[in-house]
Design a protein that fits this description.
Structural class: alpha/beta
CATH topology: Rossmann fold
Order of helices and strands: EHEHEHEHEHEHHHEH
Largest sheet: 7 strands, parallel
Number of helices: 9
Shape: globular
Strand content: 15-25%
CATH superfamily: NAD(P)-binding Rossmann-like Domain
CATH class: Alpha Beta
CATH architecture: 3-Layer(aba) Sandwich
Number of strands: 7
Bound molecules: NADP nicotinamide-adenine-dinucleotide phosphate
Distance between the termini: 46 Å
Length: 242
């Protein structure tokens, strides 16, 4: 059974990725959509043309992760694409951060993504794709955004080395580094600020564009996917000068 698996499918980039994967890859037998919000996943499920499976799980919960591993062991799918979009941000100074909130972000953005990759890899064969959503924030060192940026630098670094490790198995790995994207992400990340700054609003991309570009870049076996040329240029300069 050929499947594509999308985390963070209930919202934003993950939701758009699920729709695009469903539309584009006719050879898939099933699309698996993962998140905590059952209602949103049910609405998405009805929009998909492929047979699909809703997997309700909290990626930071080790019992949920174990149960998911059990599902894979039982069904033994051929995972053709793993699109990892689940993640959250926190725009706040580190010395003012609630430790539990900081820990949760680290667990979701880094640990859960790593565990998911590890659990899925035994079910991937030559030609499969892993797409991990990092961020252009991985390149910058901005006050009040440091911990989030560090989680995304982790994703970027891990993804790049994983790509090299999996080259022999012909499993292709792409890190996605978008700039600001117009999703509910900011409702959570900006909960301790006065909202998104106007400059960010000005250059915000749509989640659909980001998802499509990421899937195309993974198709071309690209190492990193930038959503726009501007973000590619800004990331390049940030890498060297920030
Ligand atoms: N928006 C931006 O400007 C931007 C820019 C660069 C990178 N990114 C990255 O892009 C990715 C997607 O973000 P988005 O903008 O699409 O945000 P979003 O609309 O808020 O989506 C976040 C997704 O993560 C899932 N999620 C959160 N906590 C979870 C948990 N504990 N267990 C399982 N799923 C969980 C949510 O699903 P449930 O609530 O159903 O669990 C939701 O589907 C994130 O990794 C983010 O860091 C975003």
């Amino acid at each position: 059974m050929n499947v594509a698996l999308i985390t963070g499918a209930s919202s934003g980039i993950g939701l758009e990725a699920a729709l695009e994967i469903d539309h584009r890859f006719t050879s898939l037998d099933e699309v698996w959509i993962i998140g905590r919000n059952e209602e949103k996943l049910r609405i998405l499920s009805k929009r998909l043309r492929h047979n699909n499976r809703i997997i309700i799980m909290d990626l930071t919960d080790s019992d949920d992760m174990d149960a998911f591993e059990g599902v894979l062991k039982e069904l033994k799918p051929n995972i053709r694409m793993l699109f990892q979009s689940a993640g959250e941000g926190l725009h706040q100074r580190f010395d003012e951060m609630n430790r539990a909130e900081a820990k949760n972000m680290l667990r979701l953005n880094c640990e859960a993504l790593t565990n998911m990759t590890s659990i899925c890899l035994p079910y991937m064969k030559a030609g499969s794709r892993i797409i991990q959503i990092a961020s252009s924030a991985a390149y910058v060192h901005i006050p009040s955004f440091g911990l989030y940026s560090a989680t995304k630098a982790f994703v970027l670094s891990f993804t790049k080395s994983l790509r090299k490790e999996l080259k022999k198995r012909k499993i292709y790995v792409t890190a996605v580094c978008p700039g600001p994207v117009d999703t509910p992400f900011f409702e959570k990340s900006e909960r301790y600020t006065n909202g998104v700054i106007p400059l960010k609003k000005l250059i915000m991309n749509s989640p659909r564009n980001v998802a499509i570009k990421a899937i195309c870049d993974a198709g071309f076996k690209r190492k990193v996917s930038y959503d726009t040329p501007l973000i590619a240029i800004l990331s390049f300069f940030a890498k060297w000068f920030m």
